[in-house]
Amino acid sequence: MLLERIWQAGLRSCNPSRIKHTQNFSVNSPTPRTRPRWERYLRRTAYFGLGVGTVYCLDRQFNASAIGRNLRTLWACALITADYKLNFTPEKSDQIPQLHERVANVMFNLFTSNGGLYIKIGQAIGANAAFLPRPMQVKFASLFDDAPQIPYSEVLSVFKSEFGRPPSGPGGMFEYFDEQAIASASIAQVHKARMWPEPGQAAGEGQWVAVKVQKPAVAKQTEWDLGAYRIVMWLYEKSFELPVYFVVDFVADHLRRELDFVLEAENAQRTAAYVAQDPRLSKTVYIPRVFPELTTKRIMTAEWIDGVRLSDRNAILRLMGELPGASKSLRGGTRAVMEPMVELFSAQMFLWGWVHCDPHPGNVLVRPHPAAPHTPQLVLLDHGLYVQLTEEFRRDWCGVWEGLLAGEWAVVDDVTRKWGVAMPDLFASAVLMRPTRLRRGRPQRKPEEQGKRFEDMTNYERSVVMKARLKGFLTDTDRMPKVLIFLLRNMRMVQGNNKSLGSPVNRIKITGFAASRALTRTPAHRPSHASVRVLPPRSLSYRHILHRRCLFGSHGRGSGFDRCSGSGATGWVLRTRLSAVYAGWPRPALVWMLRRMLLMVRVVYYR
Predict the structure, then answer these.
(1) Organism's domain of life (predicted)?
(2) Most CB atoms closer than 10 Å: which of 74, 136, 196, 533?
(3) Distance between CA 607 and CA 600 in Å, rounded?
(4) Is 336 a residue whose pLDDT tops 80?
């Protein structure tokens, strides 16, 4: 039995199918043909190119090039990071301006190539360009121009998707619809249309309206773009050790809201109600009427307004009669344009707590007032991006402005510490948009600046100092109010608008008055700051009167804050006829007022 099993096992081991092909190792057997290495590489390259081309075509056709845009973003960010890491060194200090220029070109090309929300991000950078190197200031200024338009075929598809009807023609939404867009922005474009006539009206007598149509690719690209934005901010925080990622969620949430035109229509109606109830603004500012029945998430219909865009500087100067040889059609000059604008956004920040965050010159029109043809009226457009301020933050923000202009440094110190800001001087400079220090005498030298003045430092040393200051600016990002990002954006754009017209108004004075006036409307607010110890407790209305007297001399044209050159002293000369103005005032109040006036002047003039 045992022998039989051994015999069967031997037969199985001799099975030809189980025998390895030893002939391949025979000396006389032919060698199998192998492909040349170049042929293998060529084949792999062809497969790879075919795969990449397929993904590119599918992404372009069905995904609005979202993947390609993100790859372009990551590549640009990698170039910028590598450029700074390799070339931002003490040995190459004299080449740092060229480094900034290269980076500005890469970022600008990225934003203009990707479009959509990237234009919004670029506009946000451009609005705060004064904090950036000079090459970036120049480059990003052009991002406020018109964006490319989408063809009418895409507009038609959006209408059929939203309403199930074409824009015009038989069964159309409007009697007439201009196929050529009047204006194009980053996420939408505007067409002029005429509504169907009301009962009793003849054909062609319907109301003219502006129809805002969202570009179809934006909805597909948004989440991809915001995902890339998160990655980039995280990488920059890790690479450059700067606290920037903490604002990502807040910014992304508000950018998403801007894509909902129903929400934008509600924002416009709310702002119109605020303006109508304010006697200072109801005649000088206008918000176009919105038609909710003709508004969806991707299409918004509003009243058509004929006017001149603020971005057309020469047309504005001609309209206001400030160009040589121009007929003066509207009264007041450019001052009558900028004064209501600054008052409007000051009221939004300090009184209403409801702030329009995109007041770039393309979103502001100037027209003759319908009831007073020789009086200018501002028309505010694009109500997609707003922030709501809490009551606590609104009062603190008012206190910061009052403290900065009246020299109440304890107020500014207390609020900035509450907000997690470790450097009140730097914060004050960001708010007033000029170098500011909050103490008498020479500013305290930072350890990294010991032994050398900032003006005498090399480009590299200055950049290192500024980076150290920015790193120390925020001690607690969790306490930092995120709305400050959009408030500073708003103020920077308003400042830019004022500059473009030659600084016809004193923006700081108007803003300071609005902040002080807003505190009088919140009697429950009693700040426990040093200002209360300097002046015996009085009503907030009385404090507002004293604050106005601190600024009473600033009645000139423009200010040093908004001028590109010059001392800015014109118009800030104090008219000190104290015997006539302050006769009969209590002595403590007069002393307090004089002290604050001198401190305010020092804030304004210090360079």
Answers:
(1) Eukaryota
(2) 136
(3) 14
(4) yes
Q: What is the helix (H) or strand (E) element at residue 299, kind and residue range? A: strand 299-303
Looking at mean pLDDT, say which of 111-125, 313-327, 495-509 comes out highest.
495-509
Segments forming the whole domain that contains residue 129: 56-144
Q: Are residues 93 and 156 in the same domain?
A: no
Whether residue 487 is found in the same domain as residue 571: yes
Phi, psi (rounded to 5 degrees) for 323 = -100, 145
More confident residue, 187 or 210: 210
Output phi, psi for 165, to 5 deg: -140, 155
Range from 124-138, 230-244, 590-604 carrying the lowest mean pLDDT: 590-604
- Tell whether 30 is covered by a domain: no
In this structure, is the dihedral angle defined by the CA atoms of residues 359, 378, 343 and 436, taken in order, positive or negative?
Answer: positive
- Do 89 and 167 sit in the same domain of this protein? no
**Counted domains in the chain:** 3
In a domain, 296, yes or no: yes
Residue 245 · residue 229 · CB < 8 Å: no
Instruction: Give the pLDDT score at 534.
Output: 33
pLDDT of residue 420: 84
Between residues 425 and 2, which one has the greater pLDDT? 425
Residue 378 lies in a domain: no
> Are 186 and 230 within 8 A, CB to CB?
no
Reported pTM = 0.73
In this model, does residue 581 exceed pLDDT 60?
no
How far, in Å, CA of 110 to CA of 21, rounded? Answer: 60
> CA–CA distance from 191 to each of 150, 260, 475 (Å)?
12, 18, 48
> What order do you get walking across the sheet with 285-286 strand by strand?
285-286, 372-380, 364-369, 308-309
Contacts of 456 by beta carbon, 8 Å cutoff, 6+ apart: none
**Distance from C-alpha of 230 to C-alpha of 197, rounded to nearest angstrom:** 49
Model confidence at 330, pLDDT cuts 50, 70, 90, reads confident
* Secondary element (H or E) of residue 54: helix 37-62
Quick check: 350 and 520 in contact, CB under 8 A?
Answer: no
Instruction: Report the pLDDT averaged over residues 481-487.
Output: 91
Listed residue (49, 126, 111) closest to 80, CA to CA: 111
Residue 363 near residue 381 (C-beta atoms within 8 A): yes
Would you list the DSSP string of 160-188?
HHHTSS-SSSTT-SSSEE-SS-SEE-SSE
Residue 442 pLDDT > 80, yes or no?
no
The region of weakest confidence among 295-299, 304-308, 399-403, 447-451 is 447-451
Q: Contact, 498 vs 550, CB < 8 A?
A: no
Q: Helix/strand/coil (H, E, C) string of 466-491?
A: HHHHHHHHECCCCCCCCHHHHHHHHH
Q: Which of 144, 171, 188 is the last residue of a domain?
A: 144
